[in-house]
Write a structure and sequence with these properties.
single chain; 8 helices; two-stranded antiparallel sheet; 11 strands
Amino acid sequence: MTSPHGTSPHDKSTHETPTQGTPSRGTPTQGTPTQGTPSRGTPTHGSPPDRTPAHQTPAHQTPALGTSQYRTSSHGIDLNSDLGEGFGTWRLGDDDALLEVVTSANVACGFHAGDPPTMRRVCATAAERGVVIGAQVSYRDLAGFGRRFIDVAPAELADDVLYQIGALEAFARAAGTHVGYVKPHGALYNTAVHHEAQAKAVVAGIRAFGTLPVLGLPGSRLLAEADAAGLPCVQEAFADRGYTPAGTLVPRSLPGALLTDTDAVVERATRLAERGEIVAIDGTVLPSSARSLCLHGDTPGAVHHARAVRAALESAGISITPFVS
């Protein structure tokens, strides 16, 4: 998510950020929004869209653990979505339909959602369709869907992050590919915007695995710590969420938090890709250098929005490519 904000029962990566303080260890608590500042810049565009699975590697040629054959790319726009968030017989969103549209899949790793059969199924389909697999790591919070801040010890959090990446890597390798990047989920994503200790812990967990790119909020502690640790940093924006004039997401409890009109979602996406701009709810124009655009899978009309966004970007001649290649 690009910023701290409010939540809804099925919000996956745009959840409230905890307030500053010291809640009891391991106890989930609800937080309040804090302000983040988007980075400046304009995205560039590359070659025509390519949907071939260039990143896919035969199982017998899979690189060693902790390494990556990917290179970060600054060209074009990436479309990402949170996928694999079912559990057992419960399903959320239409993974198969979205995997026909997006170029990067943020796959739940079992801590906020997801289970082994779901992880394997999503990895197999992503590999088949040339979609890059990313580990969507979370607090250990299945009951709360990863929406609640947890004051976990940094060393434990780092191990949790490492564990989740490793679990997803196993299923990615079984599908003939591997994990290409990491993106925190929900409350952990927003906590890492400003919480230095937890941001460092997330980065430590990623760095223990290897040198994977980190997808996150422009101007966040997470990306600052990732950069300091030598990890590639990728900034993202959101196609279906309202922005405040400060560049944060409008809390879901307030009017204007969610863009439900397809035309509005498409306009947001094309303006970001063509001009490097996002318009806040009060009309303020916010510069953005986001390389990846998140399309939530649980918003009303999510698949229709995603298809319309991709079609509009392609019609405008904008290259739609993963941010790792």
